[in-house]
Amino acid sequence: MKKTHIKHVIFACTASLFLLASCSKDFLKPKPESIYTADETYNKADALWAALVACERNMRHEFYGDGAPIVTEMIYSDIAVEGTTDKPGPAQDLIQAIRPDANLNDINYNKIGYFWNEGYRAIRYANTIITRIDQPQDYESADERNHLLGCAYFQRAARYYRLTQQFGDVPLILKEPHEAILNLNSTKREVILQKMKEDLEFAEQWVPDNDVKGRASKGAVSHLLCKINLALGLFDDAITSASHVIDGGTYHLMTDRFGIDKSNESHNVIWDLHRPDNKSTIENKEGLLMVIDRYQIDGNESGGTQSMRNGLPYWSNAGIITPTGKRGTSDVANIEIDQVTKYGRGIGKIRPTYYSEKGLWKDANDLRHVPGNWMNMEDLVYNDPALKTSNDPSYGKPLQFKNSDGKILSNDTIRQWFGWPHYKIYIPDPDRLQPAGGNTDWYVFRLAETYLLRAEAYFWKGNLELAATDINKVRVRAHAAPISVQEVNIGTILDERARELYYEEPRKTELTRIAYIFAKTGKASEYGKSYNLSNFSTDNYFYDRIVDKSNFYNKNVTTNFGVTYRISPYHVLWPIPQSAIDSNPLGRINQNQGYSGAEKNVPPLDKIPDDAL
């Protein structure tokens, strides 16, 4: 008998009191004991299911709000940089801004610290379930117990997968702690991933498909297992994991029109795929895992995606002027030419690189870049009402980058002037006069990515023909021309990921994972270079890829505030927050090479201690 998600949410109220009382923002700091005891809270199966809801809710936070954590993943990669140019502090000069003792968890800086804090918070939630899985005596069956355990394994593995690609060797915690932990030690990344692989192989057997939306599905488990197999260099296993999803019969790429705008001939299937009303419907067979965020649902404090605020240019800024030198645009709603309601108001926080904005798009038929789905600045018009009043000839005409004398008609082209994927970032926002991006479910894993993961595994195996076949499944759906076998390399796979998964994939995580594989295998990259693990922090594919593709880092671009975009090879891994190291006096959490404190490192654990299991 399957328990309902609603019932679990009700029980979550009680369970969360214990979880939150026993887990602070800094997971290492001791806290007073709760008036609720774990033994009393978790003696029913519903209470453990409620703890799982806490994990799922935690996963949601990455995609919502001003400066959402996913923004940090994007700007720390080849597809985008931090575009806030009116103040110091944002992650632009990474050498100066990204330090262990810097502010690493603030929308005005970056959200590196969020991933550390919230990663371990979710691990604690999952460990509570795993440790106490046999405490309830009221499971409907052994299947229910194993389903719940498999979901908890998935949640824990998802966090450790991210932490090991973001930070490298990190502490491994496998049990629910009953007091503050002060003696943690870093564990080798490979040891952690191998344990997560074993857990997910169990979960694959017991987690079903077609469970409640927002909960791990069998497809999501296999998808994550594919990523972990890739990270371990187990390419045959990765192919098997991906094939379970692709060939299992439950999921398929959406190739025909569907959903709320199906009858609107001005749109297409790519538009349909990303409409809020379509993401979690039964009709949509592409989503493997979504986080759930609905308008006016009790307890929904996300504030919406704010995807338009984060991802659109600051097109309404007074710095955009007409050829006659007047202010060109307005973000006031309900004026004669209301562009803010139609497109949203952006502040240019995610500034695409030339590579992701223009360099990727070679095929005029690609639905992900056709008019209506993709917006260029020239698709906007001069709409400031004062232009009409003054009879300025620019009113209602498309924006121009330069006037006839060659003068640029923007005083900050970093923040104010770039294109964006309207079909993905546009989320209706009825509660704001200046829409920033409202409530919607969001894809975490989608079948299109599974195809690209399997293509990558085939590439590492040297089977370029099958790799091309999987890449072309995604391309043909978007009406782009197939690529040839000769074109297949990691660069082309990353290109397709950038086209398909912008604002979905954790781009920094995936680039670092691939950099590790290059270093582990010694395989030459498209740059003709080979890498190794012995000098990973000083010479790696992550850095070479970003410097090759990012016109900000390779051209020493400087903001109006005087900050120059800089990056170094050691940024392949983020710094361990200094607060976590300082709060662990009886153990040693190593710092990553390139950051202060790394000179105190000791060898990380190369196996899991018996008492940790």
Task: Spell out the key features of this protein.
single chain, 613 residues, mainly alpha, two-stranded antiparallel sheet, disordered N terminus
Structure description:
- The structure is a single chain.
- The protein is mainly alpha-helical and 613 residues long.
- The protein has a domain at 307-425.
- It has 23 helices and 8 strands.
- It has helices at residues 5-21, 38-41, 45-60, 69-75, 94-97, 112-131, 142-166, 189-206, 218-231, 235-246, 269-273, 307-311, 339-343, 354-359, 385-389, 413-416, 422-425, 447-461, 464-477, 490-501, 507-521, 541-549, 578-582, and strands at residues 80-82, 170-171, 186-187, 287-291, 350-352, 374-375, 420-421, 442-446.
- α3 (45-60) runs antiparallel to α6 (112-131).
- The protein is globular and about 80 Å long.
- The relative contact order is 0.13.
Low-confidence stretches: 1-7, 9-36
What class do helices, strands and sheet pairing give? mainly alpha
| Total number of strands | 8
Q: Supply Rg.
A: 24 Å
Report, as a whole number of angstroms, the end-to-end distance: 31 Å
Biggest sheet details: 2 strands, antiparallel
> Number of helix segments?
23
Question: Looking at the structure, what is the overall shape?
Answer: globular
Question: Biggest sheet: strands side by side, in what order?
Answer: 1-5
- Beta content comes to under 5%
Average pLDDT metric? 93
Fraction in helix: 25-40%
